[in-house]
Write a structure and sequence with these properties.
The structure is a homodimer.
Chain A: E1 3-6, E2 10-16, E3 19-26, H1 28-36, E4 42-49, E5 65-73, E6 78-84, E7 91-97, E8 114-120, H2 125-134, E9 136-142, H3 146-151, H4 153-160, E10 165-169, H5 170-177, H6 182-190, E11 196-200, E12 206-210, E13 215-218, H7 232-251, H8 256-274, H9 287-301
Parallel strand pairs in A: 1-4, 1-8, 2-6, 4-5, 8-9, 9-10, 10-11
Antiparallel strand pairs in A: 2-3, 6-7, 11-12, 12-13
């Protein structure tokens, strides 16, 4: 059971106002798995190239993370370089080298197929579709990006029809829906079938909307200094779905309140990710740090 | 006692994705006074031209608003035209005609000088300074804008030294402080003397910071449709300071919790302002509507 995630593992070079980190481990599933691993067991499905040595995935080797579904294939690992503007909510991509990711046709290991929660990180919708067909999850969630909205819209629509939860950046939701207002834009998603929408707003926090009309929103946790926002969205998703999976495992059901709490956990994990280059911040945080931050986030958003 | 505000009354022409409104009453004190009037008595100090007829201020004539400090002077009333982009957080100014505002040297009526709260709406810092010298308020607050930060920075600094509360848009705070991070930017304000900073983030809500290190944040109330964001910031300030003044009058003191609640009221009033062109939405809302919205805002941001 537990949480299965499919997405990219990559090698990133990152330049921000605080400095730079070159050729560090990244990719959506790396951030997602580390964030979610504080709550539940995470099964990772991805692809890398034979250019990575045996130690390259060391940061992901934790008790709660099963990396056996990360398949090495002849060729280069996905590589990405990006430079952030000073306000950190905007960045420019310096290069994207797909490498072996271009041939990624995931075969989900048998032991990962039956899970509480499945997360389809940002990937071509056809790959997301293939993974959905191979798995049986109680809750299915996906992320996507502007590139797929523009180039593979109909495929994306077909995948959206099959998931319960869409986790998406605010501007990409607006682009997908062709509507500025969040509630109006949300209807374009709910009309396809999902009943939970999570909207990521970078340093402005996130919102949860349901097909039943519920609305909940929380701030981003205000960190002292944003070092590197890479992976904040995937770490947010990991905190959100990790907590949801944990609750599903322990209580057997998910209520609206669980999703609200999960939004706060997402905010906490997204903020931690920004406090160091690449995945580095995850080396020093404990479950207690997360609990402290969650309580702190409640204090700064709730009138007692 | 109660609340005295000094700022502009103007005639606006507004173009948004929802339509347009030409030559309607506007200006910072109009929005501010209407929003604050639900909580306390508001004394308005401003200037208009003799081009406005006797009925032009009809929308401001409410039991709780004293407009006797709005002085008509030979010439034209301040006029502003603006067009909003589709996302409503950005606009372009089509024209600004200062008219009599260029000669505004306010003489605060004797009966307005002793007040619980003074709000210096966005004006040239020298005029704000002159008003501060004429009044005796328990709490003094100011707003400002990029134009004064660029063209009259030293004057603005001198005025900031004399107030307790700075209410400012996020990008303008960053510009003033030369720092991206909100907490770092806040220090540039606190170092001058104010101990409360309220940061307006448009449709992303607002944050309250104190010199003692407290931090609190709330979402903007998510309205079904934004018709016209003109005056949202001043209506926010009116809801915020109106509630603070009401609490000062009734309890004699202000605690941190009062400011947090005031932030939510500010958010509610700012959202109402966006639901109609110009000041029109204030014609149909009651104190009960505000209480409902406040409760609603708590529901969507607090985990019960």
């Amino acid at each position: 059971m537990s949480l299965t995630v499919v997405g990219t593992v990559g090698v990133d070079s990152i330049y921000t106002a605080s400095g730079s980190a070159e050729n560090v481990l990244g990719g959506s599933v790396s951030y997602f798995a580390l964030a979610a691993s504080y709550f539940t067991h995470v099964n990772v499905v991805s692809i890398i190239g034979t250019d990575l040595d045996a130690n390259a995935l060391a940061q992901l080797r934790r008790t709660n993370i099963d990396t056996s579904g990360i398949t090495p294939v002849q060729g280069s690992t996905f590589r990405w370089g990006g430079r952030y503007h000073e306000d950190m909510n905007h960045r420019e991509t310096l290069y994207t080298e797909l490498g072996t990711l271009a041939e990624f046709q995931p075969v989900v290991p048998e032991k990962f197929r039956d899970c509480d929660v499945l997360f389809l990180a940002n990937l071509t919708p056809l790959v997301q579709f293939s993974v959905l067909k191979q798995t049986k999850a109680r809750l299915r969630a996906l992320d996507t990006m502007n590139f797929w909205i523009e180039s593979a819209r109909q495929d994306l629509v077909e995948v959206m029809r099959l998931v319960d939860i869409v986790i998406i950046a605010e501007d990409e939701l607006r682009q997908f829906a062709g509507a500025q207002n969040l509630r109006s834009a949300a209807r374009a998603v709910f009309d396809l079938g999902p009943n939970i929408l999570v909207v990521k707003m970078g340093s402005y926090g996130s919102a949860l909307l349901t097909a039943a009309g519920d609305y909940f929103t929380t701030a981003a946790f205000p960190i002292a200094e944003a070092i590197d926002p890479t992976g904040a969205g995937d770490s947010f998703a990991g905190g959100f779905l990790g907590y949801v999976a944990e609750q599903l495992e322990t209580t057997g059901e998910i209520q609206l309140k669980t999703f609200k709490q999960a939004l706060l956990y997402g905010s906490c994990l997204g903020a931690f990710a920004c406090e160091g280059f690449g995945l580095s911040r995850f080396e020093s945080i404990s479950k207690t740090d997360i609990a402290d931050r969650y309580r702190n986030l409640q204090e700064i958003t709730h009138i007692q």
